[in-house]
Amino acid sequence: MNHDTVRAVAIGASAGAVQALLHILPSLPAALPVPVMIVVHVPADRDNTLVPLLDTRCQLAVKEAEDKEPAMPGTVYFAPSDYHLLVEKDGSLALSGDEPVNYSRPAIDVLLESAAEAFGSGLVGIVLTGANHDGAAGLRAVAAGGGIAIVQDPASAMSATMPAAALALCPDARVETLDGITAFLSGLVHA
To answer: Which residue of 31, 60, 82, 134 lies most exposed, with the fewest beta carbons within 10 A?
Structure first.
């Protein structure tokens, strides 16, 4: 799998997500040739404050995902609070109010598993810092579909539980620091 076959990036994060995403996303170039879909665990009664926070700091467009919206290159899509974010077979985005998964809605596994089905070997799946096991099964689905599975180095994560759980289920995943993840994603521009 090489950079030039990547069609989309899906990222999951929980505890420590703000700091991790503030490290990665503002460094990505506006010419990023793929969409980036992100699930961060946000309480159902709160708005996702990451969108306005990151929109002012990023060269990429940053927005909350809308149901049936096509996923466009150079755009970061966040799951709205209290909705699962999924990817349809045609690459468009879908929102679901289905039951929580791993006690979370949105759930990282839901995004990663649906994106793995939609993009197969063209998907980069990334599990960042977090304090539960959400994302582990989804990352395994990414790897099984031929995509690139990346885990934040648990030693560098604010909360190591989630990346460690992902590595336990997906032991062949690439382990990267935030700088390594940023460099990998930036390299997609030159593919």
So the answer is: 31
From 14, 81, 114, 159, the catalytic residue: 14
- Residues 172, 106, 182: CA angle, nearest 5 degrees: 45
Backbone angles phi, psi at 176, to 5 degrees: -135, 150
Indicate if 190 belongs to the active site: no
Residue 3 confidence (pLDDT): 61
pTM for the full predicted model: 0.96
* For the chain, domain boundaries: 3-186
The DSSP bridge partners found for residue 10 are: 37, 125
Query: How much is the pLDDT for 42?
Result: 81
| 27 belongs to the catalytic site | no
CATH architecture of the domain covering 3-186: 3-Layer(aba) Sandwich (3.40)
> Is 134 considered catalytic here?
yes
Q: Which of 27, 41, 92, 186 is catalytic?
A: 41
Q: Looking at residue 1, what is its pLDDT?
A: 46
User: Any residues with CB less than 8 A from the CB of 21 and at least 6 apart, and which?
Assistant: 11, 13, 38, 40, 50, 54, 128
How sure is the predictor about 4, in pLDDT bands with cuts at 50, 70 and 90? low
Residue with tokens 């899509």: 77
